[in-house]
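Hi F.,

I've been meaning to write this up properly since the lab meeting, where we talked about keeping a consistent format for the predictions we share between groups. The idea is simple: the sequence comes first, exactly as it goes in, then the structure tokens exactly as they come out, then a line or two of notes. No screenshots and no reformatting. I'm using this chain as the first example so we have something concrete to point to.
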Amino acid sequence: MKNFLFTYPVGVLLLLFGAASCNTGPDPKETCDFPPGNREFSWRADTVAWWPSTLGGVWAFADDDAYVMGSIWKETGEEREFHLGLHWNGEEWSHDINGTVEEIKHVANDVTGDDYYMVSVGNWSINPPKPGIGEFDNRAKEWKGYQFETAGELREVWTDGKGFFMAVGDNGMVYTKDGHETEWVYSKAPTEFNLREIDGVSKNELYIRGYLSLPAEPVYDQLWKYTGSEWYKLYDNQDTSDIYLYLEGAMDARYSGVADVAAWRCPVTDSLQLYIIDNESFLVSAKGQALSYEVVNLSEKGLTLRQNQSNGRSIDLFTPNDVWIYGTRYNFYHWNGSNFQKVIIPGLPNDDRQFGFQRKMQKTESGKIFFPTEVSPDVYVVVQGVPLSAE
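Output, unedited:
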């Protein structure tokens, strides 16, 4: 047998040695060992709209490439301009969003996306309301709008970041799209409640909040788990029979038990963390796909919303150690894996007396935050947070 001697240039040997000896460490997404989330930012707030506007949400492809969608009225001198969205180009919010009303076809209630593809959902007809969807390909800079005849509006949309999108809306309405090039498919959840908030682990594990508002009655809430084929009613404070999840202190029908929901599953331990935010806020845990849950009130972890007579209204879960919970009256709390801390955002009210409607935060790869909100009943802004330290 012959012996072969392989020789390499010195530069190649150094490259191979460096690659072998450089240990970047395991991926936190696989080990579930996340560093504490950053809560130190340099903030700015840009006014983007005036009453009677609504902000439907924001999606950011990059620090200098973001879109805020909705019904946007801007004042320019004595005139007013209407836009379906604005684009952040790194310097300003411009009305140039590479599309027109005829192409987009709807007013957005929510928006989400992945590396290059964005979907916004809402309505295209006011009387009676009908659902509309807009898709934007950031590579081709092209919009594609859809109009549907189903009764009601689409309220929120979720993606797995791999081409699957699920939009939910009034009267149990569901539209799904599995792949960027596929068509939207309509289906109906087993409820007449309006579906509003949605979050998921994958396209086979989604958590969806439904609500029902009746004259002279409290708002009723449901929480559903959808597996891609089966629906399970986890929570219902109108009909508490045949449910899987009991939230102590939130079952009283005078209060809505679910205002928002956020889910995370660790692949190593196959364990679920499910946040439920409202009058009382909870962290719900489960092992595997079992419909058996452990519940901890977040006040036990230091969330002081109820002690301050404020409700939780929304949540953004970026990692288990990077969670933002907002309450009524501009209360923003951040969980970094160890404790909750109230974060004061310059440019937003902090007098515990004003109410405002916030949309979801979005975070870019660099850790920059985009966040649409009211600052008064007449003025709407997009807040940007640039991290002061690495996450």
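Notes:
The first helix runs from residue 10 to 21.
Residues 198 and 383 are 23 Å apart (CA to CA).

If this format works for you, I'll send the rest the same way.

G.
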